[in-house]
Each structure stands twice: as structure tokens, then as C-alpha cells.
Amino acid sequence: MEKKIEIYDTTLRDGTQAENFNLSVEDKIRIALKLDELGMDFIEGGWPGSNPKDQQFFSEIQNYHFTHARLAAFGSTHMAKNKAENDPNLKALVDANTPVVTIFGKSWDIHVRDALRISLERNIEIIRDSLGFLVSRVETVFYDAEHFFDGFKADRDYALATLKTAKESGAQCLVLCDTNGGTMPGEIVEIIGQVKTELGKDTRLGIHCHNDSEMAVANSVLAVTAGVIQVQGTMNGFGERCGNANLCSIIPALVLKLGYECKAGPNLQKLTSTARYVYEIANLAPNKYQPYVGASAFAHKGGIHVSAVQRNPETYEHIRPELVGNVQRILVSDLSGKSNILAKARQFGLDLESDDPLVMEIVSRLKELEAQGFQFEGAEASFELLMRRASGTQKKYFDLLGFRVFDQKTTEDAPPQAEATVMVRVGGRIEHTAAVGNGPVNALDNAIRKALETFYPQLKDMSLVDYKVRVLPDSPGTAAKVRVLIESKDQKDKWGTVGVSHDIIEASWQALVDGICYKLLKSEGKGKKAD
Q1: pTM greater than 0.70
Q2: N or C: which end of the chain has fewer CB within 10 A?
Q3: Domain total of the chain
């Protein structure tokens, strides 16, 4: 049996129906080009008949060339009151000028009667006429059988009749949709088997699953083993409600686990960077726990795990992370042993042996700091600095002589005004500066940068991108310690730093200073990117 599969990406259409997932026309073009680089067979760009933004996208994308993918426009069968040749939606699909058009139609009798409020026979006519209109005007036409699995379970004969009509009308692939996301894997396989029996083994079938039951990936993979040749889904599983089938899991599962071939297969090493690129363009924080492409997908924390992984990665990794463009990470925490420290030392370019007393000193210091509330799993830059300080290889870039932060509110309606002053010594020179900011921490950040940029101009391309505060449960109420996690970035990397204190300003200062020191270390070519 030939094991080739087509990947149909609908991130730019179905994915944008996710809450808080919004893309401009330029965003959609950038993502489309990135998906083409990955090797998608089809990229669904949007619904040109539904909104001006998608119409603009299809107009502007004509100025670009795809290497791998074929662009698809999406829409519905014609409205019941119209004829196909007079329907604005179908005309917009043709005018999109794409090599592929995908339309959806109703296959569940409940939707025909209650949503469309037409007869079952009229729905069949609409499917036939819509596809007939498009097939004569578009190179390739796919048919999405919306709510197919629910429709099949409610009225098997009618659901199959809609598919047969679509096939006879020229649709090149019939895509079975689990639109409500409630179908179980066993049902998927059984129903696909019956469809192939009724429509013929040569019928080209696709699968389109939603994730409302957390089964979208499993259902999609099993559908392939049952004989479908096209899988629809989105990057990172973005989609309405609980999301769509996640192509970032489906593609490596099919290629690496089951031996299927697709255009994206040879480019799997680009999968992680593409997944994170989509998060970045959408201005959303990546899911670090996501399989295959998440930052924690190949992260090891327990000392026993780390020791085993160092000897043989297969002990705790189901694939080599490099296959999907990810990396193995060794975490540091109060669970850490010597194996973690030695692994991190190698990562940071420090030459330590297992019997080096410095290793146990670092382990002891780590556990002491974590008992105080420090946490280094999201602050690997701070941990690298800790190791370098312990080993005596960390340069001291400046000395703090003092800082002061003012935060005042003059009237009830006026916003607070924050100002910070900082005095530092670099070499034998003292710098005393002041700055304002949006809140005391921002003012302090601005002041320390202002003081140091005279000596270290490379700090100008560094910025703070995330700031988190967590109250630690060791003391009640406002007397509790706080932990501050800061994420910084420059033009190449991002890195995390941490500070802990009963005073939120002091904790913020610790994290800010570590962030600056790491940037300076990195500019000397010594630091390693800390995810």
C-alpha cells in the first residue's frame, strides 16, 4: 500500500476562529510563506466571500510564489434562495483566483432542517449545483462534509447520499468533518470503513477534526490508517472552541512513527521554528508543554532521568528532538543532582568533572536558593550566572552604590508617577542617573540602563518582554516573599532571570541585574541562549 499523505493547513482560516487569535493581512501572508517553506501541500487562506480582509489577502498573495503549497480559498455551498450562477459566495471563490477551492455543505439532517430550514432533497440539489458551478471554473475542488460523523450516526443513508452527490459532481476529495469534535477514535475507523465500502475503495477521502473531546490528533492519525489521503488541521491546534487537529503533532506522528510520506516530511527540522513563528506573529505565548515542538517537550528535570538521558537519550525521549527542530534541555531545580549540573556545565561551556568539589557546591547552593523561593526552570540565564560565579569565571561588570525609587500619586484621578535614581561604579568611574517609567520597576529598569549604556552601548538593543510576579506561601499576607521572573531579549535571543525578596523592588532589581549581566556575557560570546 502506498503510504503518501497530503497535509492541508487551515491555520489562516479555521485557526483564526480561535479566541484571541487575530491576524492582519500582512500577518497571514508571512505565515503562508512560512507554511510553504515547511512543505504544506495545501494552505487555506480564508473565506473570500465573508469579509474584506480575506478578499484583500487573496488579492495580495498573487504577488508571491509558493514553492511547495497550493493555495485554497474556502466557502460554502450556495444559499438556498439563490441559483449557483448568481450566488455571491461562489463568485467570490472563483474571483479569488486560487488553484484550489474548498466548499462545505450539510450532511447532518438536523442542520438541513433546523439551520438551513430546507428539505433534504433541496440540500442535495444545492451540493450538486454548487460543485457543478465550481468544477467547471476551478482547477481543483474539495468538498468538506460538515458534521459528517454526527450526520452519519443520525441518518446513515442521508449522510452517504450527500457524499455520493459530491463525488458524482466532481469533487476531487471528500473531507469527512468531525465539526463538533465529539467522535471517538473507534467510531472514526468504523465509519470511514463503511464510507469506503459504499463509495468505492478508489474514493479520495480526507479528515477534518476538532478537539472538543481531546481526540483530534488521535482521530486524524487513525483516519489515515483507515485509508484517508488528506489530513486537515492547524499549526499548534489553533481553532474554534477547543481547537482543531494539531498538525505539529500529526505530521511527525505520521512521518516518524508510521512511515508515511508527505512534502513536509523532509523539512521536519523546521517544524519547531515554524510552530513558534506562528505564535510570535499572533502575539501569543507558546505552549511550552506542547508535544514535539514545545520548549519542555524534551526537558529533563529529575537527576535520575538526566543521568540516564546523558547515557542514552532513548531512555526518556520517544524521538530525537533534532528531528523536529527542537533541543534537549536539562532543567535545574531542587530535584537536581550532579548529573543535571554536569549537563548544564557542558551546555554553558564550563569544564567540570563529576568528582569536582565545585559540582556539589553548586548543587548545595542551588538547593539553598530554591528553599528561599528561587526557581530556575524559567530562568536559565540566572542559573548560568550562578554557575559562573561559583566557578570564578564570571566577570563583575559594575558595582551598585545605591538606588532609590519614588512612586507618588498627586490626585485621585491622576495616574501614579514613578521615578528611580541609581548610582553605580564601573571601574573607577561613578555614574549617578535618574529616569521615570510606567511604574517603579520600569523606572528602575530605565535608570540602570541609562547609567550603564555609557559604558556598555550593546545594552541599547536589549529590551524587557515579560515580567511576572508570584507571591510565595512562606509568610502570610503582604509580609510574604515574592518571586520575580523577567524575560529579556535582543535581536537574536531571549533569556529568563529571577529574583526573590520580601521587597518586590529588590526582587525585581535582582532579576533586572541578572538580565543585564547575561546580555553583557552574551556579547562577549560566552553565554548560551537560555530558553
Answers
A1: yes
A2: N
A3: 3
